[in-house]
Amino acid sequence: MEKTTILIHKKFVKSKIDPRIYGSFVEHMGRVVYSGIYEPDHPAADENGFRRDVMERTAQMGVTAVRYPGGNFVSNYDWRDGIGPVDQRPRKVDLAWLSIETNEVGTDEFMKWAKAAGVDPIFAVNLGTKGIESAVSLLEYCNFPGGTFYSDLRRKNGHQEPYGIRTWCLGNEMDGDWQIGHKEAEEYGRLAYETGKAMKLLDPTIELSVCGSSMSTNATFGEWDQTVLERTYPCADYISLHQYYGAQEKGTASFLAQSLDMERYIQTISGLCDYVGVKMRSKKQIHICFDEWGVWALSNKVVQNSVEKNPWQIAPAFSEQIYTMEDTLLFSSMMMNFLKYSGRVKIACQSLLTNISACIMTERGGNVWVQPIFYPFACMAKYGRGIVMDERCAGPVYSVNEFEEVPVVDHVTVYNPENKEVILFFVNRSEETAEVEVQLQMFETGKVLEAMVLCHPDKKATNHVQHDCIKPAQFDNWKQNGDVLNCGLEALSFVMVRIEAR
Fold this sequence. Notes:
The chain is of the alpha/beta class and 502 residues long. The chain is built from 11 helices and 27 strands. It folds into 2 domains: 4-11 and 387-501, Immunoglobulin-like (Sandwich), CATH 2.60.40.1180; 20-383, Alpha-Beta Barrel (TIM Barrel). Helix content is 26%, strand content 27%. The model has no long low-confidence stretch (mean pLDDT 96).
């Protein structure tokens, strides 16, 4: 196979990385909250009922921000049900997931967890069954110092200081007819603008994300986004995108190529943002908040059937996907896209943190373990800091029905001037070893500091039974000659190499 050659020049940079691309997502769905992050009877529970073992894994994963409380859940949620004395909170039906919500965990509890876990909160407001008044009241409860009804209610509930929540999402997937309170683009755009306008009158320091398309295959993709941007541009700071990929039945080559669709998705929305900005005669640039993303191996029919067969349970176990090595490679390429397009993507939230399409899995009353997707996330969150380099490359490609040219080796390079190192991330999409040559120009290169590989001879292997079946290992198949590094990437592998560089 032809070698992949990558040229990196110190003067050729693309963009700075916002650490919030290493975010995750906690929704009141299945066991994400109850017996996920929260299980007061668990031996590892802290004084607030949150599992310390899960918080430890969240820290090891490198999560910087977490979106809450949904997701589809938020579109029929009244935040007032989740505050005040827990024993007085109402039990409500959750129409999104056909479950019973106890409201044992709400705004104040989540903020305790966020502080303990060391993550920035990203809150979503209900623009499905609620609107301006509910959103502004929640903002007042969270961010206003005191002396008003809702800020004093927060203080009465034991939280004297405002939370100062910075980032707010105006609804969730409002383009989807599955959403409670689904709206047409014009209708949503007007409501989102009026809600955002009112929220920024109350707290001008906040930033707002409006709902873009919830997947690149939606019939309204593009048209929806343009209409919403035109209606909300004066108050919007971000446009939210969501994307999950499955389709394993098409084979490994097509499955792993789906990250190219994600690239095209980001490029298209970036162009629409710029077009609308010009149309509005605005100097402001709208960024992308990719606040739901992941690999979704289960069909929507399977997900719904699992709850419809036994509805109205409390925290039912459903959609608890088990990820393979093959899934992990697509996940890695998807995450690498946030580095490649970090000039535009400033926030990203892997979906979800625990138990459902998750990096972290828990057993009720028992252990916590991690899926193989945990490792590339943790690796990029730890080392993908600083500046993304503008690479020049040439190498072998393959074609599938959806894409004519799929690079065999997916890659991105980060320069961390503070730590004086260059970090190389690779995904080998091939079922053969892939040879790579990296040329570092105008750097004062030193030794290789660390080299890690994640792979397994069985691409369908998981960590479900043997929890350490897939885990990182030392990568030794490299040779360094001055500022040139040659690597032989194992078949179907994720590889990271750190090199001293000034």
